[in-house]
Amino acid sequence: MSSLSSNTRAYLYSAEKPTDAQMEGFVRFLSRKYEREIEVSWVKSKEFPGGFRLEIGNDVYDWSKEGKFEQLREKLAYLAKHSDDVIPLMKDTVHNWTPEAIAREVGTVLTVGDGIATVEGLENATYGEILIFTDGIRGMVMELRRDEVGCILFSDEAPILEGSSVYRTGKTAGIPVGDDFIGRVVNPLGEPIDGRGAIEAKDYRPIESPAPGIIDRQPVNRPMETGLLAIDSMFPIGRGQRELIIGDRQTGKTAIALDTITNQKGKDVICIYVAIGQKASSVAQMVNNLKNKGAMDYTIIVNASASDAAPVQYVAPYAGCSLGEYFMQKGQDVLIIYDDLSKHAIAYRSLSLLLDRSPGREAYPGDVFYLHSRLLERAAHLSDELGGGSMTALPIVETQAGDVSAYIPTNIISITDGQIFLESALFFEGQRPAVNVGLSVSRVGGDAQTKAMKKATGTLRLDLAQFREMEVFTQFSSDLDDTTKNQLLYGKGLMRILRQKQYKPYSGEEEIILLVCALGRVFIPVPEKEINKVSEEMLAYFRANRMDLADRIKGSETLTDELRKEILDIAKEFLAKRK
Ligand code: ATP
Ligand code: MG
Prior knowledge:
579 residues, alpha/beta, Elongation Factor Tu (Ef-tu), domain 3, Rossmann fold, 6-stranded antiparallel barrel, 18 helices, binds adenosine-5'-triphosphate
């Protein structure tokens, strides 16, 4: 035991505030041990349930459940080996036991800069362990070499000097979690950055944790409605699915994610939006928008902005995922958005290069596939035995000039269960959301749709594919026969119906009504430019005059032919009245 350190202040970490008598006990214990006056300060910490941890200088008294157990186990093993009559000795040990100080391992900083530090003298440090530097700055071990460890730093490195001391904590990086995080904006370390005071945590979870196994899962079979007709009809997303949103810059990727969040209002889904490497001002704007839509009541924002160091951006999605797992394991449904993983890969690339790892394709390190697969595998639909909760992941990836065969896009396409491909050309034509129907896919498909929606969608994808082909064919011909003309008109109408304004999600019933009408060729007589206006008025007409219909669509298992006919009749009635 090293009582050489001259500290006169000890820190006591525990979940509950100790009583005065207990405090006195600690002071007495320490003063006797170190033969000088020692003050004890209490620090509230949830990390040592059912116990406490006392730190003075480099000495640590670990009285947490695990610490107690570990020390007792060692002692008993020792006794069993060295004594013949162990039982009385064991009894004595268990009853009259006080924890012994385990000297903390102290290392020395070799180099520091760019958010990275190399440290020598920490022989037992483990991958992912948190180290404490000067001024309590935290870092995480990322690289283990023969006589030094490479470590990423989570805050400004200015106070850290070469030669300064570093302490091991024995803990892996984690984030506090709890219900009180809902409605808040936090950084990847779980600290609030919305100026609304401290957040009370329920638990502390490691940011990296293994994905649920096969036995722990069940098939994805409940819809996670986005409220966007183009997606819910053709590329349905299920709870527990991972669907990539991919496209060039400024093609409405974030808009799709935000629409999906706003559409979860009143649906008992916890939403987590992880912003990686974005401008702080755009995140602030977005939080405002969500607040105005009432969506912050069930949403958590984890923000690692462009000005944050690469290590902070690197841990952000894992931290967000841990928060999501907390809710999922309670049996709740979670929607998590990673905006975006291209910037995440870039942050990882820069810190890998700084850690001297060898660069591979596009200068990314060799394990960049694992970087994203271990994150996205954590999305799941848990089995009923585990509470039946789910976490749906919508990662976002930015492409350059529509190139989906670049390194990061191909990786993530192969990890996810489908992608929504957004196209600049469509976006500028005014076709928003700019979903490219040919290149988008949802590999979970119809299982994630209600029967009624599946039936209403019918041949939409096929019709659109035919339309695209015909459009190309007829581009240069002037005189078209009537069938072709009608076919083109119909296709154009379908494309129009799929246009949707931002923050205007449709309910499931409205989507079904629109689909039935569009596929029933109700909009053929309407001039193309007016289709969106007319369809909006028509939905209002349905709402005003036929409230019962919406309830019946909602209540019915599937879309019956009578119901379909009724919808078409009302739509025609509305169009006739409108003229
Ligand atoms: P970035 O690459 O910068 O992240 P992004 O692909 O996320 O861009 P957004 O920020 O979602 O794109 O959208 C770009 C712009 O287009 C925004 O101003 C947004 O308001 C607008 N926009 C997106 N979707 C729609 C829509 N359906 N209708 C009208 N405007 C839209
Ligand atoms: Mg965006």
